[in-house]
């Protein structure tokens, strides 16, 4: 599969985003600064790294959740298909079934739909996908592709499958439109029923990694390949900077089939069988005697395994939980979204991570990093103004988003770090304690 490139996302009436906000990695072509931070695919030029700043409560985490919500709704839709809908009362599916969070602080938005859009690039073709949901019903859906010219592949103008039009790469789905329920996304159902383009797009969107550094954990999707011997050696080289006594990591990925009883009155004693994945990490450390590291049998006798998650520092744990995704996108391409990138990590280490994405040697496939942060020192030096986004919330609880490249001041007169510290862009909180 060609790795996904993220061009843009948007959301309307979702959490603090009452009115439409739009984010893009597409560069501002009027800015000629620091082109090494960009890459070109087809006729598009995009940023490798994007920063999202904002005060506490301005919506940074919810910005990351836009992509996660799109992924959740795509994942949810096939569960409404056929007899599977009878299984939905199971606790296993409660989180998937929840309604998208609307803007809560203005009654006007109770009767408005929640809308999302995402633009991705696969094999130099730009795909635009958007949909609107109201009261769990999909009332609009659109999929287009652009390669030299724009082409509509699928459009849905109401919750009824009768109002779904398909053409071109989606033409073979025409006879299966009746399978799309009012609360399901057509794209997701087309994927389940074998449409190849839908399958590629769903895989691409779901492959975007979203990681919260404030609550680190190894994602269930991480398999044994992420903890191969070769990979663990790479992790150790990084982690030894924080823990110089670390010598070996032993990672066990255990898979267990779990049966869940379904509480529905269909007299069929239904069960759902899922795979539960657990990851155990043990570490071996160097043992010293009079300043010299012990080797051989004497060392083995004293080197008890250390439970990584309970005995290592929180910063080291956060680093390990993030490293598999970091190496995945750097080695293969793709998109990684990090919420609060500096949480628990030293500033120098965070800047090193950013450099890995900027450098074409360590990032040969133009992987993209999107990170939310409070740290103004991340954007000193060679940072393009169109890499920096600001989230702010007004007195009515509405969050808005704008890009620093929209400022008319010339680059020579703007020190981004100083301006952030001075709150020139309104992304710092008001004084909490006076």
By DSSP (H or I, 4+ residues per run), the number of helices equals 10
Helix content: 10-25%
Q: Which spans of ≥5 residues are poorly predicted at pLDDT below 50?
A: 83-90, 264-268
Distance between the termini: 55 Å
DSSP strand tally: 20
| Major sheet: arrangement of strands | 2-1-6-7-8-9-10
Compute the average pLDDT: 84
DSSP strand content: 25-35%
Rg: 24 Å
- Characterize the overall form: globular
Biggest beta sheet summary: 7 strands, antiparallel
Structural class of the helix and strand makeup? Answer: alpha+beta
SSE sequence, one letter per element: EEEEEHHEEEEEHHEHEEEEHEHHEHEEEH
Chart the SSEs and their pairings.
Blueprint: E1 5-12, E2 21-24, E3 38-41, E4 44-47, E5 49-54, H1 60-76, H2 94-97, E6 114-122, E7 125-134, E8 137-147, E9 149-156, E10 164-166, H3 186-192, H4 196-206, E11 209-212, H5 229-239, E12 246-261, E13 271-285, E14 288-289, E15 292-293, H6 297-302, E16 306-307, H7 308-311, H8 314-332, E17 335-339, H9 347-358, E18 368-373, E19 388-393, E20 399-403, H10 416-421
Parallel strand pairs: 5-18, 5-19, 11-17, 17-18
Antiparallel strand pairs: 1-2, 1-6, 3-4, 6-7, 7-8, 8-9, 9-10, 12-13, 13-16, 14-15, 19-20
What does this structure look like?
This protein is an alpha+beta fold and 434 residues long. The protein is 22% helix and 30% strand. It contains ten helices and 20 strands. The strands form five sheets. It has a seven-stranded antiparallel β-sheet, covered by helices on one side. Strand 17, helix 9 and strand 18 form a beta-alpha-beta unit. The longest helix has 19 residues. About 3% of the residues have low confidence.
């Amino acid at each position: 599969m060609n790795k996904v490139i993220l061009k843009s996302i948007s959301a309307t009436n979702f959490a603090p985003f009452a009115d439409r906000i739009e984010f893009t990695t597409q560069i501002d072509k009027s800015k000629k600064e620091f082109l090494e931070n960009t890459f070109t695919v087809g006729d598009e030029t995009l940023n490798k790294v994007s920063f999202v700043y904002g005060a506490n409560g301005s919506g940074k985490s919810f910005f990351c959740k836009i992509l996660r919500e799109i992924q959740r709704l795509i994942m949810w839709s096939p569960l409404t298909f056929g007899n599977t809908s009878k299984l939905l009362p199971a606790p296993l599916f409660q989180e998937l079934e929840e309604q998208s969070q609307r803007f809560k602080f203005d009654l006007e938005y109770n009767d408005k739909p929640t809308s999302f859009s995402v633009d991705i690039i696969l094999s130099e073709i730009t795909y635009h996908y958007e949909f609107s949901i109201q009261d769990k019903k999909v009332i609009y859906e659109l999929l287009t592709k652009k390669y030299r010219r724009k082409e509509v592949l699928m459009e849905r103008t109401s919750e009824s499958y009768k109002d779904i039009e398909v053409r071109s790469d989606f033409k073979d789905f025409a006879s299966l439109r009746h399978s799309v329920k009012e609360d399901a996304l057509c794209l997701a159902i087309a994927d389940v029923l074998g449409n190849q383009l839908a399958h590629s797009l769903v895989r691409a969107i779901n492959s975007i990694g979203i990681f919260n550094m404030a609550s680190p954990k190894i994602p269930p999707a991480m398999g044994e390949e992420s903890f191969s011997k070769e990979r663990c050696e790479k992790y150790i080289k990084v982690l030894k900077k924080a823990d110089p006594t670390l010598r070996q990591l032993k990672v066990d990925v255990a898979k267990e089939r779990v049966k869940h009883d379904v509480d529905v009155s269909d007299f069929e004693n239904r069960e759902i069988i899922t795979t539960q994945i657990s990851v155990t990490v043990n570490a071996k450390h160097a043992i010293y005697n009079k300043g010299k590291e012990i080797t051989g049998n004497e060392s083995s006798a004293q080197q008890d395994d250390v439970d990584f998650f309970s005995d290592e520092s929180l910063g080291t744990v956060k680093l390990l939980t993030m490293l598999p995704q970091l190496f995945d996108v750097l080695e293969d391409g793709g998109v990684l979204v990090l919420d609060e990138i500096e949480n628990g990590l030293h500033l120098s280490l965070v800047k090193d991570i950013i450099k890995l994405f900027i450098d074409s040697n360590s990032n040969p496939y133009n992987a993209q990093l999107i990170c939310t942060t409070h740290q103004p020192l991340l954007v000193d030096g060679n940072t393009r103004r169109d890499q920096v986004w600001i989230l702010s919330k007004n007195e009515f609880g509405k969050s808005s988003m704008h890009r620093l490249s929209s400022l008319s001041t010339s680059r020579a007169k703007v020190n981004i770090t100083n301006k952030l510290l001075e709150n020139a862009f309104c992304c710092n909180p008001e004084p909490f304690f006076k």
